[in-house]
Amino acid sequence: MPIIKVEGLSKKFGELTAVNNVSFEVEEGAIFGFLGPNGAGKTTTISILCTLLSPTSGRASIAGHDCAKEPSEVRKAIGIVFQDTTLDKDLTAYENLMFHAYLYDVKKGEMRKRIDDALHFVGLFERRDDLVKKFSGGMKRRLEVARGIIHRPRVLFLDEPTLGLDPQSRANLWEFIIGLQREYNTTIFMTTHYMEEAEVCNKIAIIDNGDIIASGTPDELKKTVGGDVIYINTPDNQKAKLEIERLFNVAVTEKDNELFLPALNGDASIPEIINAVGGKVLSVRLQRPTLNDVFLRMTGRQIREQNGSAEDTVRESVRAYRRRHG
Amino acid sequence: MVEANAVYVLIARDFKKFVREKSRLVSTLARPLIWLFLVGGGMSRFVSPGDGVTYMQFIFPGILGMTILFSSIFSSISIIWDKEFGLMKEILVAPVSRLSIVIGKALSGTIISTIQCAIILFLFPFIGIKLGLTAIPYTIAIAFLLAFCISALGIVIATFIENMESFSAIMNFIVMPMFFLSGAMYPVQKLPDILKLVAKLNPLTYGIDALKHSIFRGSVVPDFPLLADLGVLAVSSIVFVIAAGYFFERKK
Lengths: 326, 252
Known about the structure:
The structure holds 2 protein chains of 2 kinds.
Chain A (H helix, E strand, L loop, with lengths): L1 E12 L2 E12 L3 E5 L6 H8 L7 E6 L2 E2 L4 H7 E4 L11 H11 L4 H14 L15 H13 L5 E5 L7 H18 L2 E6 L10 E6 L2 E6 L1 H7 L3 E6 L3 H12 L4 E3 L2 E6 L2 H11 L6 E5 L3 H9 L8 H18 L1
Parallel strand pairs in A: 3-8, 3-9, 6-7, 7-8
Antiparallel strand pairs in A: 1-2, 1-4, 4-5, 9-10, 11-13, 11-14, 12-13
Helix pairs in contact in A: 3-4, 4-5, 5-6
Chain B lengths: L3 H17 L1 H22 L11 H4 L1 H26 L1 H6 L5 H24 L13 H25 L7 H14 L12 H8 L2 H14 L9 H24 L3
Helix pairs in contact in B: 1-6, 2-4, 4-6, 4-7, 4-10, 6-7, 6-11, 7-10, 7-11, 10-11
């Protein structure tokens, strides 16, 4: 049973189409990755799912409730960690979570235990009585994850959860997020423009300029750009090239004193290839396609190579629209 | 549909921050004290309002109104901070009605301003005003109603404003005129006709008029009957709450 259903969803801000006829489904208990460059329409889609924006056309539902028509049922079922911090800096970590527990009407008897559990879960229990303004970026983000799970949502939205975090805090955060899915069977809906982070997802949809251009599991997507590539260097590349071509019936190319050949199951083929050239190998390496390659194949450009100006233009026009129609 | 849990926690949050920030309490109390003793004290030597009261005594209800005006507007305008720093998003995605948010926020402004107003009220012996045991709770009850009305108005204003840059515009074009055209510093009856009309549209006018009723008990003649004052405050409070709820609910 899909817990999130999106059908033909579009959102226009005046002339600008932020989301264009998007459809997808997310199964309960899955980690769903919504990928795309900045300004592609990820945050707009999340805002519609979270009942903060209404769609121009199409429909979205969570746990069987329509996001536009039954916002309060949807709100009960979801937790959100926004891109920008939404904590009260002048309250302590504990008070921020207490505020949340009251807003979501968590039972008085359970409140303290749930808050303590959440704080332990993200490793902030010792800092519970510190004001949030003293927290680092990573701690704030962890606290927001803790806050997002206090009311035991069925779906947790994470909008660019690792943006602006150092590598260690990022790794930490991923541990918590995967733990969430394991421990509470929470469905995770996350957006990111770091393709490498999407490897943990069960399913991915790639969005660009408001359209979904590809979706599937990470492996399925990677297969669309071809399999692995093996690079090999031997004392006699000419001889090795002929030998490999004869035995495996593949085209081997030589480039920069290195041979390379495509292989569907790269890691399993390496020993066979080394045997084929009689063990005389100087170096061998395997390159797997990444989700970046998928994006490159689909759009003809790197996900992070665009200049900031495109994204700023989108943001600026959304703001201008809101000013006019707000 | 108003959720008590949400109303409670919005009040609790503001109250906790109010108690924690001592400097805010000092600065919001400093303004009425300066006006009462420095402006009121100085003007008392030039102006005699008649009715057997000094000018400083005459403006005392107005100074109470001023305390409420600034404190309530300030409290409601903090919604703009919450929008800028994000907490408002956390509140808006929670399963609570917009009306609960408005009422919670309005009540927290109301309670905080009423407390500040009560502190100023207890200066009455120092300026030669006599208040009976019943007049004090009576005055505080009027202050509460006025504070609720102004807090709700502040929320209506805050729903139209996205950033703090507009703060000084609100102060100069809304708050200060509201203060001067409220009968706080001079009787509304003595204003030119056009300003008299503006004063009559100003809810603060009726609040201060009601405070004059409870503090002077007839020794100074107020502009309107007490029941009219309370009626206007009650009706405009309801209008402001409904308007604020409506503007909050709007989605882009």
